[in-house]
Design a protein that fits this description.
With about 120 residues, the chain is α+β, with helices and mostly antiparallel strands. The chain is built from two helices and six strands; from the N terminus they run E-E-E-E-H-E-E-H.
Length: about 120
Amino acid sequence: MLKITAIGNLTNDVELRSHEDGKPYAILRIASDRRYRDREGNKLTDFISIKVRGALAERCAAFAYKGCKLAASGDFETICFAEDPTRQPGFLIKATEVEFLSPRKVEEAAGVAGENGAAEAAA
């Protein structure tokens, strides 16, 4: 069994898609800086693709946003590009777990607090 975990910042907002059978999925892309620099002193950044499916994809679409920090764990999958054999193979993480490491956006937090306050007032 192979399990990989990656932590980084989301490079764009999550776009929820659907397979032919209607099941949702999303491809997340995160940027993660390396702990060391190259010989010229430049920061090195890796970009990692993550595929999430089903309810996890829907949760990511609801709570993740461009720039937020997240951790994703899952299986490692190598991707070959049959249409362009000169292109180097890549990989992605087929995530079974995603943890949001950034706080919610201000608008979302205010909406949740307002809903909780209304529920408490009704009680």
